[in-house]
Amino acid sequence: MDWRIKLLKEEKYSDIFVDTYQFEPPLGWKDIVENLVHYIHWHNKVHNTEIKIWRCVKESGGLRFHIDTQGFGREGLEEIFGAIQFAEMMANSTCEMCGSSGELHKFHMNSSLELTTLCYKHFQGVAGVETID
């Protein structure tokens, strides 16, 4: 079973994923995403909040998390926003294919601009690209 589907179906996280409409992070960011989901679950229990994950995707070469915070004051949410920002920053230096140390690359492929975070090995595996500095 795909790790993303397994995480979405995990009973202890059912309250977090109730309104999720898109959950497609790459395999290389699995540990980052799982840790953030666990943190949000912990935060909900400890602070008696009901933060939900709407969307988790690769966007513009990096990880993007969108959450529902309706009905909550700014107090206490700074921790969640900080954790999300940290996870997104970690993904920007982690290969989306294998989880090794990576960097953001931009290149042209099939007449379009691609942004992706890859390690050296996986970037070399992208054939026929013209890199942009």
Helix and strand arrangement:
Blueprint: H1 3-9, E1 22-24, H2 30-47, E2 52-59, E3 62-68, H3 77-91, E4 103-109, E5 112-118, H4 120-124, E6 130-131
Parallel strand pairs: 1-2
Antiparallel strand pairs: 2-3, 4-5, 4-6
* Number of extended strands: 6
Mean pLDDT: 88
Strand content: 25-35%
Order of helices and strands: HEHEEHEEHE
What's the helical proportion of residues? 25-40%
What does this structure look like?
With 133 residues, the chain is of the alpha+beta class. It has a domain of 89 residues. The strands form two sheets. It has a three-stranded mixed beta sheet with strand order 1-2-3. It has a three-stranded antiparallel beta sheet with strand order 5-4-6. Helix 2 links the parallel strand 1 and strand 2. Helix 2 packs antiparallel against helix 3. It is elongated and about 45 Å long. The termini are far apart. The model has no long low-confidence stretch (mean pLDDT 88).
Feature tags:
about 130 residues; 3-stranded mixed sheet; 3-stranded antiparallel sheet; 6 strands; elongated
